[in-house]
Specification:
alpha+beta, Beta-Lactamase, five-stranded antiparallel beta sheet
């Protein structure tokens, strides 16, 4: 049996262990239990006495605390921070430390009940720092975007979903001579009115279309402000859509007053030059016809051939001059359609008769469908004639030898639709957007057909716009093109 002294020693040992256990409980009770960070308790020599937070065992393992000394994790210059904490008995500010791929925030706190011991709170801030860096990058991008928008060479308006102006730039204010304070958070339609470039029709639905998820291609328009000042602009619009929900729209525009003035001067010059050329060209034509009629003496075959070539070139020049005059009249707004009740089939049959020499020369056939029926429209006979004269002559000119031209006419209650298909060169895809521009001729056509002005399709589209009609096309390179023409049956009210 153990002696009495042994029993006393064992009892003292148990009491000491109990006291030590109570102290450990007291220490752990001072750890912030709700804190998700790793907390270490260490002495002034750097020895780690214990740790808190089982959730951070992984971090503890990654920090590789094998020697149970804090300096195995952090450089020894951190000892000064520990000493400062012990000396001043105050908590330090957080400071960062990069350990491998982790960013740690470290804080030292004194353990008041046990002098010479320190709590170290280690917080893994890697993900937060990554997020902060992303936010900084977003802010940088936002600043760059704002800088670009504010310094664009074009004006812009940003509209909310209700059509209010929520932002603009200095170029827009300069173009429209506007005061930012007077337009921001105001309904666009209450400040400006938009008209077509001829100032004939107000575009009342334009803003609503943009904020309702419809884009607007670059269009020449007239903007009128509250003071009734007029601004000639080229405008395009884009909806702002987030996750399928309309947030508003953006209008981008620039001043085209100078461009319009230059175009006007060019049109005036073309008009004057064309009028001056008409008289001498008519005189040359009359003289050549006299020579070919041999009223001034007989001609041999070689002379007839030469004069015929001169006459053909003269006819081409007259056609060019007439087209230039038509262009200038369109741009000046001097063409007013004289609408009558017409039988479209009769006009197209006349056009076909006119191009028969070209069809015969190239051994081409024209196949028609629906032309035997009577197709009544209310339109200008001269303009309709010129539209199909251009389209059918082009179909023959650009179709292959022995090729087929197809013409189909069909109607519905509101309009008459015509399709004219050739088997010609087709239009290169990268040039199709320019097809109805003045003087445009596709590269592949210029190589094969050197003659041409590039005005025919511009005139066709312009005439159709005057008649409230439409034109569009489908084309495959080196296979052919189909033009679609829609004309209203009745006069538009």
């Amino acid at each position: 049996m153990p002696s009495k002294q042994q029993k006393i020693r064992d009892s003292k040992k148990i009491l000491e262990e109990k006291k030590k256990l109570q102290e450990e409980v007291l220490i752990l009770s001072q750890y912030p239990k709700a804190n998700p960070d790793l907390v270490l308790r260490m002495n002034k020599k750097g020895k780690i006495l214990d740790s808190h937070n089982f959730y951070k065992k992984k971090l503890l393992k990654e920090l590789q605390v094998t020697s149970k000394n804090i300096y195995s994790i952090f450089p020894k210059n951190y000892k000064s921070e520990i000493n400062k904490t012990l000396k001043n008995n105050k908590q330090t500010n957080d400071f960062e430390y990069t350990f491998k791929d982790k960013i740690l925030e470290i804080q030292y706190s004194p353990f008041n009940d046990r002098p010479g011991e320190v709590f170290i709170r280690i917080k893994d801030s890697t993900e937060r720092k990554k997020l902060e860096n992303k936010l900084i990058q977003v802010d940088d991008k936002k600043e760059r975007l704002n800088f670009i928008l504010k310094n664009l060479g074009e004006g812009f308006f940003i509209l909310d979903k209700d059509g209010k102006i929520i932002d603009t730039n200095k170029i827009a204010l300069q173009i429209l001579n506007a005061d930012r304070a007077k337009i921001i958070n105001k309904q666009f339609d209450n400040i400006f009115k938009i008209f077509d470039e001829k100032y004939k029709e107000e575009k009342k639905n334009l803003i609503q279309n943009v904020i309702s998820n419809k884009s607007i291609k670059k269009t020449k328009l007239i903007l009128i402000n509250r003071d009734n000042n007029q601004f000639n602009i080229s405008l395009c619009g884009f909806p702002i859509n987030k996750n399928g929900i309309n947030q508003g729209g953006v209008l981008v525009f620039h001043d085209i007053s100078l461009e319009d003035e230059i175009d006007k001067i060019k049109t005036e010059f073309v008009s004057i030059a064309s009028h001056q050329l008409r008289t001498p060209l008519a005189s040359i034509k009359w003289t050549l016809e006299l020579l070919l009629a041999e009223n001034k003496g007989l001609l041999n075959n070689r002379q007839k051939q030469l004069i015929s070539r001169i006459k053909e070139s003269n006819e081409n020049m007259i056609s060019l001059v007439n087209n230039l005059l038509k262009v200038s009249r369109i741009e000046y707004g001097k063409i007013t359609p004289k609408k009558l009740n017409l039988n479209l089939s009769e006009i197209i049959n006349k056009n076909i008769e006119e191009i028969k020499p070209s069809l015969q020369r190239k051994q081409q056939k024209i196949k028609t469908q629906g032309l035997n029926e009577k197709h009544e429209i209310n339109s200008d006979p001269q303009l309709v004639y010129q539209i199909f004269q251009n389209l059918l002559s082009n179909a023959s000119k650009y179709s292959r030898v022995k090729g087929d031209i197809k013409l189909k006419v069909k109607k519905d209650k509101q309009s008459t639709l015509l399709e004219i298909t050739d088997n010609g060169f087709g239009i290169p895809k990268n040039q199709q957007h320019r097809l109805f521009q003045k003087f445009f001729r596709a590269d592949n056509v210029i190589l094969k057909e050197t003659e041409g002005t590039g005005l025919g399709l511009y005139l066709v589209k312009s005439f159709l716009e005057l008649l409230d009609g439409e034109i569009w096309f489908d084309s495959k390179y080196n296979k052919g093109t189909t033009f679609y023409v829609k004309l209203p049956k009745n006069e538009k009210k």
